[in-house]
């Protein structure tokens, strides 16, 4: 059944454009993928710089015997042999940092308006460029992992090495060793969701801005999957030590912004309102919105409890080498 038109006027599309045929008579130029890719160059360059810094840090940690990766997988204790693995990890961290930034920007844009922020158009542009950079960094992370698998595969046939590395890195369910059996599909899920949910923006005139907005909300799942994948699989956050605590702490501002965004959304049509009132949501819709707000509040409480209690899912660092590794390069 078609829902009657809401008497509360819809706010204009905040994506920097108006829907085709919006009838306002004023046309703003729609951001295009090519233009945004060009605009993302400074942002992507900064990301490459951050990746290089993380790579250097991981290298030094391995050289000085303080690397958690080497503690978890002693066969990897040689940065010269495993530099591709370190680079993959470094891209993973910059991808996660950029994902954090772009999610924060998205929540700021769709939540209550705060004074003392750069103009909305600037924030929107940053959101678009950081989101493009995030997807590229995620891909680079997985690609370097695949390259590492090719490099350490001892079989002679290149086709077999390439196929096996591609399938392990990019085909969900293919990787069959240790924690990676669960953690890798979670990471792939994040990457494969990020691509359409980010890029659909550039074809929203075809699918409709409303459909695009509805789909784009699910981008939060990309972030949740990315963090989950990292907590589950990242050897640098394997033990319950400060890097893992910092990772958890970084989730507090995201959760708080999510609560604010849900409590006071920028779009009037998304406000909770009273169910059944003229112009307000119907009861099922209201219940879903209320549940979303309660869940977000529970997430804030949960993340705070984890950070304060120290029960963050990290393992205790063993005195000697571990009995098993999260994934077994040694046997390849
Ligand atoms: C095709 C998808 C993906 C594959 C094949 C993949 C593969 C891996 C592997 C093998 C590790 C373990 C590295 C270690 O020993 O620490 C890892 C860790 C990690 N991944 Fe992914 N990943 C994927 C997607 C993602 C995504 C979407 C993100 C987030 C933006 C991400 C961020 C990270 C981070 C931050 C780490 C921790 C690295 C460390 O501990 O130093 N990954 N990933």
TrEMBL record:
Membrane spanning residue stretches: 40-62, 82-109, 182-203, 215-234, 246-263
GO cellular component: membrane
Record Pfam families: Ferric_reduct
The keyword Transcription is annotated on this UniProt entry: no
Disordered: annotated segments: 1-33, 313-332
Domain Ferric oxidoreductase: 114-226
Record keywords, A-Z: Membrane, Transmembrane, Transmembrane helix
Stated name of the protein: Membrane protein
Organism: Streptomyces gougerotii
High-level lineage: Bacteria, Bacillati, Actinomycetota, Actinomycetes, Kitasatosporales
């Amino acid at each position: 059944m078609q829902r009657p038109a809401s008497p509360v006027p819809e706010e204009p599309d905040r994506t920097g454009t108006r829907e085709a045929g919006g009838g306002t008579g004023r046309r703003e130029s729609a951001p295009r993928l090519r233009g945004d890719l060009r605009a993302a160059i400074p942002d992507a360059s900064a990301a490459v710089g951050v990746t290089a810094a993380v790579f250097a840090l991981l290298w030094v940690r391995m050289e000085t015997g303080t690397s958690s990766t080497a503690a978890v997988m002693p066969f990897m204790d040689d940065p010269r042999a495993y530099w591709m693995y370190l680079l993959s990890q470094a891209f993973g961290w910059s991808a996660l940092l950029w994902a954090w930034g772009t999610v924060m920007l998205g929540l700021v844009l769709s939540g209550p308006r705060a004074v003392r922020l750069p103009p909305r158009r600037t924030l929107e542009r940053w959101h678009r460029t950081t989101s493009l950079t995030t997807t590229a960094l995620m891909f680079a992370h997985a690609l370097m992992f695949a390259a590492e698998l090719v490099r350490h595969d001892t079989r002679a046939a290149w086709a077999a090495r390439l196929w096996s590395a591609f399938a392990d890195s990019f085909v969900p369910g293919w990787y069959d060793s240790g924690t990676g059996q669960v953690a890798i599909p979670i990471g792939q899920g994040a990457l494969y969701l990020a691509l359409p949910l980010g890029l659909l923006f550039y074809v929203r005139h075809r699918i409709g801005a409303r459909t695009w907005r509805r789909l784009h909300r699910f981008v939060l799942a990309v972030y949740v999957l990315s963090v989950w994948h990292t907590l589950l699989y990242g050897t640098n956050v394997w033990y319950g030590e400060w890097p893992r605590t910092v990772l958890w702490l970084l989730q507090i501002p995201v959760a708080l912004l999510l609560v604010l965004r849900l409590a006071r959304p920028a779009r009037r049509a998304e406000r909770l309102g009273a169910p059944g009132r003229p112009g307000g949501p119907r009861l099922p819709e209201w219940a879903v919105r209320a549940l979303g707000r309660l869940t977000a509040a529970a997430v804030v409480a949960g993340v705070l409890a984890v950070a304060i209690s120290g029960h963050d899912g990290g393992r205790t660092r063993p005195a000697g080498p571990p009995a098993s590794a999260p994934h077994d390069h040694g046997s390849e």
